[in-house]
Amino acid sequence: MARAVVTGGAGFVGSHLVARLLAQGHEVVVVDNLHTGDRRNLPEHPALRLVEHDVREPFDVPGASRVYHLACPASPPQYQVDPVGTLLTSVLGTQHALQLAERAGARLLLASTSEVYGEPEVHPQPEAYRGAVNPVGPRACYDEGKRAAEALVRDWHRAHGLDVRIARIFNTYGPRMALDDGRVVVNFVQQALRGEPLTVYGDGQQTRSLCYVSDLVDGLCGLMERTDHVEPVNLGNAEELTVAALAQAVLSLVPGSELVHEALPVDDPTRRCPDLRLAAALFGYTPRVSLAEGLARTVEDVRARLGRRRAPGVTPRCADPRAP
Ligand code: NAD
Ligand code: UDP
Hints:
Layout: E1 3-7, H1 12-23, E2 27-32, E3 48-52, E4 66-69, H2 76-79, H3 83-104, E5 107-113, H4 140-160, E6 164-169, E7 172-173, H5 184-194, E8 198-201, E9 207-209, E10 211-212, H6 213-225, E11 232-235, E12 240-242, H7 243-253, E13 259-262, H8 277-283, H9 291-310
Helix pairs in contact: 1-6, 3-4, 5-7, 5-9
Bound molecules: nicotinamide-adenine-dinucleotide and uridine-5'-diphosphate.
Uridine-5'-diphosphate binds at residues 75-76, 171, 183-184, 187, 199-201, 206, 208, 243, 264-265, 268.
């Protein structure tokens, strides 16, 4: 039984990764300050421990053999609330996770992002593409923070021989996304279930490629365990669709709402789609869950949580500025 550390393990992706690691028989230590995460995302389990801690301060988990470093707000509205804090979370948090990995002799995986490609001029995006990021725009705290984190991880390998992996994660969705997260899938699903208009930013012709969370967890575990590749590897799903088409897909499951167009956020990328050939070649990565299936599971999860919030005497799970 290996001891795995998951920073950011109380968040959306982290909590699914924790469940997988526990199911595989590992002991798991979650390090999370609950900034955008929630302890209720984690099960009661004898092999699981939550350490409430901000990764901008050093931390230690003796005996760790794997460090999955996910701690960082990931939704644009969430990471822009405190942009300086977000950038420092990426840079200092990654440095502290690397120091822990070195002390423990552990392998470390960084959860990086497709945002390192910025507004891509190459489509779909392969790992060799170096990106077009606005270094001083409102998304820079996240994009540049992750670019710096990648550089740190790669330099720790170069300078200290640390065993590292870098996952460039493309848009991922599924159950347990916080209701006040603000990303597109949980917004649309929630709006549709409430009978409210779906807020399409801009003309809705910008694209994303959406990966169901269990497929991403397959990719994170595969990258950690089934290859020794230390360069960045894209993970996601290559089925690209427009935001307007996503809205229609949600409405086909939960009909009745209108669409309303709102301003496109500054620097919102126009197109995004992963080239997944490297992950496929390295460890046979293949996303399996279709958008229809993944959205149906997400709708059921959000419906259940909204139902619990409405039940008399039950405290809402998340503060939700969009709630009526
Ligand atoms: P999330 O916001 O649900 O989870 C982030 C977790 O990190 C939360 O539990 C939060 O409390 C914790 N955290 C934030 N700042 C922290 C700090 N300073 N110290 C300790 N813990 C802190 O987001 P997510 O979607 O689960 O993303 C997880 C990781 O995956 C992030 O690193 C993100 O950049 C990366 N990622 C996610 C996606 C996606 O589509 N979900 C895409 C690209 C990259
Ligand atoms: N978006 C939207 N309505 C929403 C939330 C997001 O139209 O309520 C759009 C957003 O402008 C972007 C896409 O959906 O073009 C994905 O946004 P998200 O915040 O989920 O992720 P990211 O921009 O980081 O890819």
